Amino acid sequence: xxxxxxxxxxxxxxxxxxxxxxxxxEKAKNAPGLVGRDLVKEVTCEKxxxxxxxxxxxxxxxxxxxxxxHHVVAMDFGIKRNILRNLVDVGCKVTVVPATxxxxxxxxxxxxxxxxxxxxxxxxxxxxxxxxxxKLIGKKPIFGICLGHxxxxxxxxxxxxxxxxxxxxxxxxxxxxxxxxVEISSQNHGFAVDLDSLSGTPLESTHINLNDQTSEGVRHKxxxxxxxxxxxxxxxxxxxxxxxFERFVELMEKKA
Length: 256
Prior knowledge:
two-stranded antiparallel ribbon, alpha/beta
C-alpha cells in the first residue's frame, strides 16, 4: 500500500492458472498500458439506434414516457444505459450513434442537442472524436459526461493527463463554483482535464474535486456547451447532480 501511495497506480496480474511469480511479473510488465490506446472502438455501437426507455420506478418498472419533446443525438464512446434513461426522464428521445460518426452525420438528424458519453481509456487515444466535436461546437447545445467531458475539452484546446490515482467510487466531493454547493458524486476515471490548460481557451472551470483539486466540470464562456467529469446518472446514487440533465434541456429550449 505504501508503494502504491508513493508511485501511483500499478500494472498487475490476477491468475488462478499461472502461479509462477516471475512469469506473472513479466506478463504485467509486457501488458499494454492505457496511455494513447483507443478503447472506444471496442465498446461503441456498430450502428445507430433509438432509445426511449426511462428509469426504473417502483410499481412501474422501466417507464416509457409518451411525450418526448426534445431530440438528442448521443455519441457513444461507451455509453451507460442509465444516462440514456435519465435523458428520457427529462423529455428526450435519443438517437445513439457510433463514436466514429462524422459531424455531418450527427447534424443530419437535426437534433435539438448533442450528448457526448462516458467511455473507457485515454481521451488522447481517440483524436477523431475530438476533431468531430470541434466541428459541432456552436451548431447545437452540447452536454458531456466523463470521457465526453475530456473529449470536449480537447476539442477546444485544453489538455488532459493520466491521474496518479484514478477516482473510483460513489463518495467523491465536488464543488459547484456557481452555487458554492458541494455535491457527493459517483466517479470512475483515470484521466483528467488539465486545469492550467484552460487558459487561452473559450472554456472556464465550473466544478472541482475537493479531494485533490482536479477538474470536475467546464463550460463554454459564450455558447451552450458544458460538461462534467463525474456521473450524475449513478444508480442507486448519489443523486445530488441529476439537475444537470434538466440544465441540458433548458439550454435546448433556449436555443429553440
